User: Which sequence fits this backbone?
């Protein structure tokens, strides 16, 4: 049985710049990284392989240079990597992205039964957390989001039990397989790649599927298949900071001045 992990290559946001003219992200020269939440999805996939003997396949939709990120996944012990890359996939929103990923999963299912699809909670660029649920909805899979612990997978009963991390509380849920599980950072600590696996990953073959292989209707993918378009990306203007009581060294005095000012601004009601 298969575990499929969806990973996205994203710009290293600590270095992202926005083109003042087009309002688009400047991607040239920006280093790319594996989406941080996906490093935890990857680690969880490897752990499920070790616990249940699953075969693990990693898939990613992205430009040709996404191979670099897929090799990082191979260096951590996944069995196969599939890159979904075609100009026709470009400009996709979450609807069109989940279409391509779901189709790739359908094609992999024709080879081997799928038990679990793992995704990260969200990406650090689009940040919508919509793709995982989109995949599950398209495939009719159970969907468990915000998971911080996969307690048990019963292949006999075709059930999974997992814990979801909600605000201020946890939830233990049981669902039918196959299931899409999106994970939070707290689920695990990703391992480092071993030297033998890194060497193997450098020479490994990465399967590349374009739309010739996927045969999707052009109207359902890329810009054409997108219900939303990002019109403009911009940094929100930040209110200018204000220095209060310049030169005051006495903490009580500073505190009472701050309280007075917050009250004056209607930000403190005591
Ligand atoms: C700044 C910015 C804002 C955007 N805003 C929107 C928007 O409001 N609406 C919209 O529809 N699109 C938006 N997009 C486009 C969106 O980024 C893409 O559609 C993208 O492919 C998926 O959405 P996401 O990044 O929000 O992913 P999320 O839904 O946050 O990703 C969740 C998980 O899905 C998996 N996943 C996501 N993308 C891929 C992939 N390409 N390959 C493999 N696995 C993947 C990963 O496991 C990931 O952790 C935006 C893009 C940018 C850069």
Assistant:
């Amino acid at each position: 049985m298969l575990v499929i992990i969806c990973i996205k290559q994203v710009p290293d946001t600590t270095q992202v710049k926005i083109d003042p003219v087009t309002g688009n992200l400047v991607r040239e020269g920006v280093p790319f990284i594996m989406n941080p939440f996906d490093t935890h999805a990857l680690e969880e996939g490897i752990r499920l392989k070790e616990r249940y003997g699953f075969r693990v396949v990693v898939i990613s939709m992205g430009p040709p240079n996404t191979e670099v990120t897929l090799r990082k996944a191979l260096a951590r012990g996944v069995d196969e990597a599939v890159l979904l890359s075609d100009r026709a996939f470009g400009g996709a929103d979450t609807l069109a992205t989940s279409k391509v990923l779901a189709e790739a999963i359908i094609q992999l299912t024709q080879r081997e039964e799928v038990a679990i699809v793992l995704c990260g909670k969200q990406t650090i660029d689009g940040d919508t957390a919509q793709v995982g649920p989109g995949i599950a909805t398209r495939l009719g899979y159970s969907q468990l989001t915000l998971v911080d612990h996969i307690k048990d997978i019963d292949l006999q009963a075709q059930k999974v039990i997992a814990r979801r991390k909600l605000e201020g509380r946890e939830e233990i849920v049981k669902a039918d397989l196959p299931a899409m599980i999106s994970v939070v950072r707290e689920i695990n600590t990703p391992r480092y790649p071993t030297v033998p696996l890194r060497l193997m990953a450098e020479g490994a073959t990465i399967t590349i599927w374009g739309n010739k292989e996927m045969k999707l209707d052009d109207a359902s993918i890329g810009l054409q298949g997108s219900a939303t378009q990002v019109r403009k990306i911009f940094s929100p203007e930040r209110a200018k900071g204000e220095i209060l009581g310049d030169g005051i060294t006495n903490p009580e005095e500073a505190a009472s001045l701050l309280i007075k000012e917050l009250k004056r601004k209607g930000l403190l009601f005591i």
Remarks:
- The CA atoms of residues 100 and 221 lie 7 Å apart.
- The first strand starts at residue 2 and ends at 6.
- Residues 36-52 form the longest helix (17 residues).
- Residues 6-8, 25, 35, 37-38, 41, 60-62, 92-94, 97, 101, 119-120, 122-123, 125-132, 228, 230, 233 surround flavin-adenine dinucleotide (CB under 6 Å).
